[in-house]
């Protein structure tokens, strides 16, 4: 029996769940269109969850009817959803409460980093956010999360204190280091394998400003700047975070004229004070001196480096904001010798004909590499660099983006660790799972999933 297009079944879903439900063809159904509009998200029904109880009801309903359940907040990491699946949209769970005394935030599953950044900034605090403020807090934290301060403050999910989790079996659980510790281990890194998070609590950082921004260079200087960045970044202290991106941004509103319609190279830089999380202020002069080798590599065509409030952290990467059709790829590197930089330049530098909009290398390590207070399912703490490619899947390059990204990763083969972070270039393919986790972690995650989702509801 096909449950997927069974209208009676879906009408029963409306009766069972108090939250609004949209079926294909209904106007609000399109609110499930993800940020990455290239990903086909066409569920049997969309449930606009308003509470953990709604989510639990959907889990039990799906288990009884042979349907699957997926979850989405913003769709920045969207994966395909078909008509055998009910999609829980969490946008309505957008509460954000800051506890100034405890220095924590408790946010709903639909909150974006921008909401938390704004709420925390008014108290001189900062969340352990990612580079793009429009990304969802829960989607990001369940994948670990490497933000623009990762070398200084470590993996973002190491700052999580508690989670409200609805398991595939329909139980609503408070998950902390002491309550359901195995789920606390697994939900930090395991994405939605173990359930749908309806709210999350995490520590805020005592950081209200940083020295940094981005320096943009002409594409003709790519070789000089990439090689200078490679040798310079290898010796930076943990208070300094940096990434570099070869960009080919389209001439769209919001893209600064000097960066539009040409190849440029962005060096991103974020420095905070030593013991930043205890309120130490950044030494701007020292941070500026550290940047001298990059300034000497070539002449910037645009420069936003200076002292900024933490609330402006999104300007460092200046990630794309509006929904778009993107194809992503991702690899972790153990090392970045000069030959690896040459391989990146050959594939994505001037004259390469690269179809990618962004080819980005983030220096990681630092605090990320240290064991956290509470172990989690996040693997790959020892990688030295994270490589990401983003291509716009539109003519004339649409067909070239994925093969080109695969060729670039393959050219870096001997320096790649073979691992991938759960947050980047997401997919539900088994091959992807085995790259996201080491064997023991994957085995443990799947055993937990089988115990807490006996009907295998979670897509
Ligand atoms: C422009 C851009 C910049 C980014 N920058 C960074 C960065 O700096 N660092 C970094 O680590 N990552 C980064 N990412 C990756 C991002 O963290 C992931 O794509 C993340 O999954 C997005 O979460 P979302 O809720 O916004 O997306 P969604 O597409 O809504 O969710 C993606 C996945 O997250 C999981 N998820 C979402 N909500 C829940 C829930 N309530 N319960 C359980 N699981 C859930 C599900 O597996 C879901 O499929 C970036 C992505 C983009 C597009």
Q: What do you see in this structure?
A:
- The protein is 27% helix and 22% strand.
- It contains 14 helices and 17 strands.
- Strand 5 and strand 6 form a beta hairpin.
- The chain starts with 6 loop residues before the first helix and ends in a 7-residue tail after the last helix.
- The protein has three domains: 83 residues, Uridine Diphospho-n-acetylenolpyruvylglucosamine Reductase, domain 2 (2-Layer Sandwich), CATH 3.30.43; 127 residues, Uridine Diphospho-n-acetylenolpyruvylglucosamine Reductase, domain 3, CATH 3.30.465; 207 residues, Vanillyl-alcohol Oxidase, Chain A, domain 3.
- The strands form three sheets. Strands 10, 11, 12, 13, 14, 15, 16 and 17 form an eight-stranded antiparallel beta sheet that branches.
- The chain has 459 residues and is α+β, with helices and mostly antiparallel strands.
- Helix 7 packs antiparallel against helix 11 and helix 11 packs antiparallel against helix 12.
- The protein binds flavin-adenine dinucleotide.
- The site of flavin-adenine dinucleotide has 33 residues, from strand 3, helix 4 and strand 9.
Compact summary:
The chain has 459 residues and is α+β, with helices and mostly antiparallel strands.
